[in-house]
Specification:
single chain, Purple Acid Phosphatase, chain A, domain 2, 7 helices, alpha+beta, 3 domains, Immunoglobulin-like
């Protein structure tokens, strides 16, 4: 927006109501009039904080003024916007002359939140220890905050003070994250609820007496690994976030709203969510993290929300990423790693494993070196070799970029087929050696399932335990259609037409995989 020109018109008026929102999010109505020569290139930017410099800050979102049907004929319009509490007030600005060479002609009054520092964006995650559950949240206040929990609604016998972290623009790697996409993330809190009993329901709130407490949420503590209990969980990749008011940003993953709603509708049947890379698609626009965290909060406050990094969280030149691309928009993993603390998750070592019920989960990073002899490769060997199949008879392996993929992308170094070949060369023998049952991948925005496969060849003997590979990158981002004319011989199903998510259930002898389409 460096080419922005200011030409404020006294004839144009903009008014937004209500001017105060009392909850963590809500709808406002903007009305404007007096534009003498309206065109289809006129647009409305939504900014927060209201003091933001329009020249050097990207809007949180925007919409073309002719989204209001009467605008082109009257120079007046009305539009509803959905706003999320980002710890500051909002303002609306009307521009003409398009987005490349905009001319600012009017600004509105401001919209504030009654409790800008309220604790928000709660999400659960497992720790390396049984009997624990981590809770993370964000706030505009940096004073001591806590989680309180107990076994009855409204009765909290236990308290744990939280640690506070944050990150600054200087911690990021490049544009737009460091400049016009930057927005202060507030203060990020995390702590652990401990001495939890397997299978028991716990009720909790987080925050403080000075800023208030969150809405009460609850979760069931996972079963003990020693019980070898079966579990049910949802898995997907490449979801992002969508705008309920149909506004626009750099990208919009509107189908993600259906994925979130459909998963929430099944939440009482779920023990866990796996989101395997390409999380918010913020790619350097910090406000998108706030909106994503708000979207998943109803799900992530009830079950652990376990993640791993994708290219749009991690990749940036000279940052240690394996491919040296620019896909993270200058974030190079910093916002992701601050917001999602996973078991044994360290900066530049975002791989980990965990046991949950009768499943051992291995979560690798395809964005960091995984070749033979690398630190990650050695960790994978040690982890897989230590699995006790009497406790966790099922082993599920996950990464973002797929090892098996139907795609025409052979680009070097980061094309789908180029990376798949390197993953097979580096890790496929380990999956066979340690009898991995299922491998889950994302990155390609489609649903693809293989036969039990090794070396691109389906098992000829049904008693041979080769892993099945499933690509589940169809949760929200626009679908990938670069499929080969003839599907690979190992492909059982390839679908690039539907958004959705997968649901998996285990017993001691069976692993049941379901694909749910959001269109049904």
């Amino acid at each position: 927006m460096e080419k922005l020109k200011m030409k404020l018109s006294q004839a144009v008026t903009m008014n937004v109501q209500p001017t105060t929102l009392t909850s963590s999010s809500g709808w406002v109505t903007l009305e404007w009039s007096g534009v003498s020569q309206p065109t289809k290139d006129d647009w409305i930017g939504v900014y927060s904080p209201a003091s933001a410099d329009f020249k050097s800050n990207s809007p949180v979102k925007y919409q073309f003024a002719n989204y209001s049907k009467e605008y082109l004929s009257t120079g007046a319009g009305s539009m509803r916007f959905f706003l999320v509490n980002m710890r500051a007030d909002y303002i609306f600005a009307l521009f003409q002359n398009g987005t490349s060479y905009p001319i600012l002609i009017s600004v509105s009054n401001t919209v504030a939140f009654s409790f800008p520092n309220q604790p928000l964006q709660g999400h659960l995650a497992l720790t390396p220890n049984e009997g624990e559950m981590r809770i993370m949240w964000a706030s505009g206040d940096n004073n001591i905050q806590s989680v309180k929990w107990g076994t009855q609604t409204g009765v909290y016998q236990f308290t744990s003070n939280a640690q506070m972290t944050t990150y600054k623009s200087d911690d990021l790697c490049g544009p737009p994250a460091k400049d016009f996409g930057w927005r202060d993330p507030g203060h990020l809190f995390n702590t652990v609820m401990n001495n939890l009993q397997p299978g028991k329901q716990y009720f909790y709130v987080y925050g403080s007496e000075s800023i208030g407490w969150s809405t009460e949420a609850s979760f069931f503590q996972p079963p003990s690994v020693a019980s070898a209990s079966g579990i049910t969980f949802v898995a997907y990749g490449d979801m992002g976030k969508g705008e309920m008011d149909d506004t626009l940003e750099h990208w919009e993953e509107v189908p993600s709203l259906n994925t979130t709603r459909n998963v929430l509708a099944q939440i009482d049947d779920l023990d866990l969510v796996l989101h395997i890379g390409d999380i918010a698609y913020a790619v350097g626009f910090s406000s998108q993290w706030d909106e994503f965290m708000n979207q998943i909060e109803p799900v992530a406050t009830q079950v652990p929300y376990m993640t791993l990094p994708g290219n749009h969280e991690r990749d940036f030149p000279k940052s240690g990423s394996f491919y040296n691309g620019t896909d993270s928009g200058g974030e190079c993993g910093v916002p992701f790693e601050h917001r999602f603390l996973m078991p044994n998750n360290l900066h530049n070592q975002t791989w980990y494993s965990f046991n949950f019920g009768n499943v051992h989960f291995v979560m690798m990073s395809t964005e960091l070196d995984f070749r033979k002899g690398s630190a990650q490769y050695n960790w994978i060997q040690a982890d897989l070799s230590s699995v006790d199949r009497s406790l966790t008879p099922w082993v599920i392996f996950s990464g973002h970029r797929p090892m098996y993929i139907d795609s025409t992308n052979y680009d070097i170094p980061a094309g789908d087929q180029t990376v798949a070949a390197l993953l097979r060369e580096s890790l496929e023998e380990s999956l066979i050696k340690y009898q991995v049952d299922l491998a889950l991948w994302g990155h390609h925005h489609s649903y693809q399932r293989s036969c039990p496969v090794f070396n691109q060849t389906c098992a000829s003997n049904p008693n041979i335990n080769y892993p099945v590979h499933v690509v589940i990158g169809m949760a929200g981002m626009s679908l990938s259609t670069n499929l080969q004319d003839i599907p690979p011989a190992w492909a059982v199903t390839v679908d690039d037409t539907e958004f959705g998510y997968s649901k998996l259930s285990t017993t001691s002898k069976n692993l049941h995989f379901q694909y749910f389409s959001n269109t049904r």
